[in-house]
Amino acid sequence: MKNNFNSWMIVIVANVIIAVLITGILLGLLYQLNVDAIVDYVQLNTKIFLLITFLISGYVMIFSQFQINLALRLLENPKYGFWIKKIYSFTVLFLLALTLNFTLEYFQGLKEIAGTIDWIQINTRVFLLGSFYLFFIGLSLFALIGRLYVTSLILALSVLTLGVLHGNKLQFLGEPLYPSDFTQIAHFTDVLKMVSGYISPQLMIYSLLAVLITIFAYKQLQEVKITLLSRVVVSSLAFYMVFAFTFHPSSFMKKVVEDNNVNIIQWNQLKNYQKNGFVFGYLSNLNHETFEKPANYNRKKIQEIALSILADGGSTPASFSDKGYKRPNIIFLMNETFWDPTKLDVSFSEDPMPHVRNYMNEHTSGSVLTPSFGGQTANVEYEALTGFSMSTLQSGAVPYQQLIDKKSSVPSLASMLKTKGYKTIALHPYNKAFYKRARVYKAFGFDDFISIEEMKHKEISGSYISDESVTDEIVMLLEESKQPLFVHAVTMQNHFPYRTERYDENTIEVSGLENDLKSEVEIYAEGIKQADAATNKLIEFVSTLEEPTVIVFWGDHLPILGQNKAVFKELNYGDILKEEEDYRSFHETPLFMYSNVDTERKDLNSISPAFIGPTLFEIMNMDLPPYYQFLAKLKGEIAGLAATTKIDPEGKEILKLTEKQEELLKQYEMLQYDLLVGKQYSLELLFEETIE
């Protein structure tokens, strides 16, 4: 029975090959063997080509019984069976590679079959190259395992998993899947919990059917095995080709890849994946440094920059103590997904954030030009704590996981304040291993890290620890502290998904949207309302303190509202199709700085998180360390800094940089590389107090 089933499989595969050959011959006769003309026809008429091939394979199957009998006889003959099994194995793996690469592009195209075919028509060579890469991976597995169908199953499951993860990340976060994402693989269950509300019953049924069909088919098949000698030969070729493809920028494949229209766009990963497909988009992030070494990086150059900063520091503002105040407590309150939903073109039954809006009107305030959308909170706090910018790093980088995790110490606001007598505490009501925060905060110089395990207040609101519990935890820390306190708090309550069962009751009603989108906005607005109330509770407590205290409040990024930004599209918010040009619409969140002592109110317009530290020091009249003096100077030229967007201190976009601005950015990049990746030549000069 199994041998007969194998014969059927061989016949089907052989007929597909015969059909493709016949179609190719017909096109060859039609276009007089002009290969370019044939390729152009297939690219422009892929659907017709596939239809003709399918019809021809159907006609060939008329003779299937004869073919099966022939296949059975040949398989029983060792002389022919050996070669038939080899050819069959290679063909199966290549057809599987084509199918799996099609699937990857299907997820890349957000599950649109017509769009996937159109992409393949335009990028046939890129598609075939990617398929060959998967084919050689399949050959490598076949050589290791020695069993064709087990190899096929492992390859299919691995690639399909990548495709599903990639497609979901694109839909929810608007970002492709990167190799660095798998540094969080240990916490996959946490990530799955966040998106589980979007797994449809239909998808679960289809997945179950696929599993059942696979089990049935495998039971009917007679496994195709490969001899030890053949495995050695195949592995030598396959491993070499996998290596050459994977590291193509430094192998003989570089010219092949470039000649076949693969053009890596490192500065824009969405376009990179769209242009080059998933395979080469993904590989390009394996072959690119997270932080490329700047030209002329050396000790002499770095010390020249550092000494010029010291010489050009200017007059230091009057210190906080000069006004008779003690060193102030500093509370960083980075609120998860806090954004003003009233910017959407809908009506709300009440203002979700009346207290924050009032504090923004009365105190120093503006917007944070966040480097993230919908996620990657760690990248926002990375900027705020270090004064470094994500704009200097590879698109898709997560420095907590890729860079800081490897360092024993990195200068930060925490380490600066620690030398000034502060108790420094990081607070995040979630798993301490997420984004490797436990190790990162230690490298930053925090005295303590309070995660969900150590918190005393753990009331749940929705799906996560409430913002009010975070407020209560901060209040407790302020009451117990005997020295000036710096708390860096990152909340969790308003993290997506915004499912209908999230809260017992939604107190805000939205008009102007229907069905699930209306529900998502209402649930999100309820979270904002609760965050607003918790923030007000904290400020009311701080207002009663005798110790000078400042609260810096901001949202880390905009929310994910619907799959593939469905709410934003439905309400025509911003320019979805040109997000790069309309960066600010999707990357500006509320910011204010409250102080229980008198300070001058300032309009900050739009600033990057990297400039929050020096801005706070200036407003509170605290001595600026040399590095913060440099950041203040840079902020005076470019207050909002992203890879594709620059904003001046007045809030206007900079269309062309001046020579001074370009020079400052070069120095900024050089210093960041030195302190984060390089030899830290500038550490003693710019952070002398920090390392005492």
TrEMBL record:
Residues 328-621 form the Sulfatase N-terminal domain. One of its GO terms (cellular component) is plasma membrane. It is a multi-pass membrane protein. Gene3D superfamilies: Alkaline Phosphatase, subunit A. The chain crosses the membrane at residues 7-28, 48-75, 87-107, 119-141, 148-167, 203-221, 228-247. Keywords: Cell membrane, Membrane, Transmembrane, Transmembrane helix. The keyword Transport does not apply. This is Cyclic beta-1,2-glucan modification transmembrane protein. The lineage of its organism: Bacteria, Bacillati, Bacillota, Bacilli, Bacillales.
